[in-house]
Specification:
The protein is of the alpha+beta class. It has helices at about 5-15, 35-45, 55-60, 65-75, 120-125; strands at about 20-25, 30, 80-90, 95-105, 110-120. A hairpin with a 5-residue loop joins strand 1 (about 20-25) and strand 2.
Length: about 130
């Protein structure tokens, strides 16, 4: 994937309220936005970095979401846009998320996966 493509995607998502990652086929993080960096500290108690494995974050022992992550990632790597909702527990808080896995094309070939994660807890809570 070209650095121009990576920078274009980073600019698109940098100020987003969604968590965003760009990941290669070896699960290595190519880029991420500010929200992902903040959430990494808050939820995983470690800084995220380019080149780190996204699986280190998906393999949270409390949640055991890595098998679903790998399944969704694989479908996106085959050219599908995949949407997945799930509950995730961090420390004492449980949130409901919607993740969208989107193939990123470069010269008509899939060269990575864009992962956008939104906290939809408020959308799913009953009205009071």
């Amino acid at each position: 994937m070209t650095s121009e493509k990576i920078n274009e995607l980073k600019q698109q998502f940098e100020e987003s309220e969604s968590v965003w990652f760009l990941v290669n086929f070896q699960y290595k993080i190519l880029q991420y936005n500010k929200k992902a960096a903040r959430n990494s500290i808050a939820f995983h108690n470690k800084e995220i970095s380019t080149g780190a494995s996204i699986l280190d974050y998906a393999r949270d022992a409390k949640n055991e979401i890595d098998s679903e992550f790998i399944r969704c990632f694989g479908e996106a790597a085959r050219g599908e846009v995949v949407e997945k909702e799930q509950e995730i527990t961090y420390n004492s808080a449980t949130i409901r998320t919607r993740s969208v896995y989107t193939p990123v094309y470069n010269d008509q070939k899939i060269s990575g996966i864009s992962i956008l994660v939104d906290d939809i807890t408020e959308q799913n809570s009953p009205s009071q």
